[in-house]
């Protein structure tokens, strides 16, 4: 069964809407650096695993994933899922009412093109209200040497920074560093670096001419390894992702079937 994934990105706010229809994709353990994710199952079911619980979510049920919260998604059968991704930086730079209005406009657009119904919009907004005052929505405070390494891997994931080098900079053993990093960030340094390379590739893929250029720019040694990792984390090959992504501007209507470069 073919997987149909569409991405809509709001250029003014950094808010993204992702629609998966009849997907069979499972996602490995990962986290979202600065993003609050609200999801609603439109059809079928998925198993969401976090550090808190393992739970099956079914039609019209919502879930929230906080920044830095490690999680994985397992699909036993096909499912349809609408996901709202809100960048923490966007929330910091605008008042709550403005953010709510922008989210509302994005969801109404999904309603107008038949991707979601009014009840499901209410479910998403209710879930958003329940998480808005949660302390989990705040950035975690990390040990200084973990914070420095984590920040470097976020900003410059393409750098050839080894675990041994990070451990030496922190004046601790390699294995102590790995254990400490995973305990605080939820992933090993290598896992965290790879996912941030892929996130950077998602941004660059619309600005470069070839997949090879994206692979080399984000620190991958060869194109085949890059494509394998990209599909593992995103669920689509790079070129398919590029054609499935669209940008919208405030007060601009756009269909999920439209594709424009970001």
What does this structure look like?
- There is one protein chain.
- The protein is α+β, with helices and mostly antiparallel strands.
- It folds into two domains: 4-138, Jelly Rolls (Sandwich); 144-240, Arc Repressor Mutant, subunit A, CATH 1.10.10.
- It is 42% helix and 23% strand.
- It is built from ten helices and ten strands.
- The strands form two sheets. It has a six-stranded mixed sheet. A four-stranded antiparallel sheet has the order 3-8-5-6.
- A hairpin with a 3-residue loop joins strand 5 (45-50) and strand 6 (54-58).
- It is globular and about 55 Å long.
- It starts with a strand and ends in a 14-residue tail after the last strand.
- The model is unreliable at 250-262 (pLDDT under 50).
């Amino acid at each position: 069964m073919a997987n149909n994934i569409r991405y809509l990105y709001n250029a003014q706010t950094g808010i993204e809407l992702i629609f998966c229809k009849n997907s069979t994709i499972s996602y490995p353990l990962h986290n979202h650096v600065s993003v609050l994710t609200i999801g609603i199952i439109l059809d079928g079911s998925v198993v969401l695993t976090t550090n808190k619980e393992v739970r099956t979510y079914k039609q019209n049920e919502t879930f929230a994933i906080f920044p830095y919260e490690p999680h994985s998604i397992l699909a036993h059968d096909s499912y349809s899922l609408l996901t709202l991704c809100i960048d923490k930086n966007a929330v910091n730079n605008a008042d709550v009412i403005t953010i709510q209005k922008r989210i509302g406009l994005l969801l109404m657009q999904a309603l107008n093109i038949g991707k979601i119904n009014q009840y499901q919009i209410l479910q998403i907004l209710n879930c958003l209200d329940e998480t808005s005052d949660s302390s989990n929505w705040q950035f975690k405070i990390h040990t200084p040497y973990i914070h420095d390494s984590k920040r470097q891997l976020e900003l410059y994931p393409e750098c050839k920074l080894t675990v041994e080098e990070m451990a030496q900079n922190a004046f601790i053993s390699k294995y102590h560093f790995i254990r400490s990093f995973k305990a605080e960030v939820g992933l090993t340094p290598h896992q965290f670096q790879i996912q941030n390379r892929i996130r950077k590739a998602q941004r660059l893929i619309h600005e470069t001419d070839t997949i090879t250029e994206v692979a080399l720019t984000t620190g991958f040694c060869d194109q085949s390894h890059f494509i394998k990792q990209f599909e593992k984390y995103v669920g689509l090959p790079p070129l398919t992702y590029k054609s499935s992504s669209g940008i919208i501007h405030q007060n601009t209507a756009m269909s999920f079937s439209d594709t424009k470069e970001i």
